[in-house]
TrEMBL record:
PANTHER family for this protein: G-PROTEIN COUPLED RECEPTOR
Topology of the protein relative to the lipid bilayer: Multi-pass membrane protein
Organism: Scomber scombrus
Biased composition (Polar residues): 342-362
Localization (cell): Cell membrane; Cell surface; Endosome
SMART domains, per database record: 7TM_GPCR_Srsx (SM01381)
Domain (G-protein coupled receptors family 1 profile): residue spans on this chain: 50-295
Predominant place of localization: membrane
Protein name, entry field: Lysophosphatidic acid receptor 2b
Amino acid sequence: MNNFTEKCYNNETVKFFYSESGKNISDHWRKRDYVVVTLGMTVCFIVIFSNLLVMGAIIKNRRFHYPIYYLLGNLALADLFSGVSYLHLMFHTGPWTIKLSINQWFVRQGLIDTSLTASVLNLLAVAVERHQTIFNMQLHSKMSTRRVFIIMLFIWLVAIIMGLVPTMGWHCLCDLPNCSTMAPMYSRSYLVFWALLNLLTFSIMVAVYTRIFIYVRHKSKQMSQHTTQMRHRETVFNLMKTVSMILGCFVICWTPGLVVLLLDGLGCDKCKVLRYEKYCLVLAECNSFVNPIIYSFRDKDMRRTFKEILCFLFRRGDPESISGVHFNTLEQENCKSRMGEQTENTNGTLLRNKTSDDNPASSVKWKLEQS
């Protein structure tokens, strides 16, 4: 036992492991450091603000109290946590890294791993929910609220475990030759495992959305006799656009980082992974503010709720709003009138979209666009 302890380097400094792995820690701020930190902090604030807006909208509007929106809220929470974790990283990077203890370094990396894993798993959960809803021709999933929260809890449990795994022993403190170059206290085998796990998740997402596309395209062809050819083309085009945005943004944001991680984990010394490391991490973080745009900002009801929240926040100090005197625009009055007519015609229950009821293909298109 004593011989094993002597081979470990638990009492060494962070600088020791960086030197052993060939990753230098600068003792002064370089132009590159300023660029990375400035870019990173800008992304962080955008991520935090946009995802807080999404969460606030889901809580505020009772029309969003359905399984898909709960999952979107959990995705926003994961991305919010990702923004906070990355902001923490920005204040513990560059020349500040040398001041960290080993435990502080593991906390810094663990927060990033946990948040990004939770974000990816939530993306997969949203894809599976859309698959279930569209194939059952439903407006909203019949999944119970309890089941949704169990899924959300499971996502965070897996994400936290993934963040704690290196701290619990899958590191290289006792195996210096196996240390990563990008993360000098992480084992190369762990980096390979983490990268492959995310690539597997991405592959499942590709398979799910591909099946959705094939199914909707088949259904729209079946219904083409009841609709014009233009409507058929519009359905397929909108579906292609939505799927391309979801998969395209994920590929653009994550593929470079996963490739770099794999190269580092496989010990590619000639790949110069350190040159691209920080930029790949910033790009992966960008996926956390792209998610609200794809999944939420394209929803008209969500955008309307955003405007209400922003108007409330930025007009709190407006004397006219404080006085309690409000003047509605003609558009607002017309909207109220239309809503009143709908309520009267349905005894208090809003009418469903007639196009969605009469045309299953259009219903499928609408539901996918809401995602």
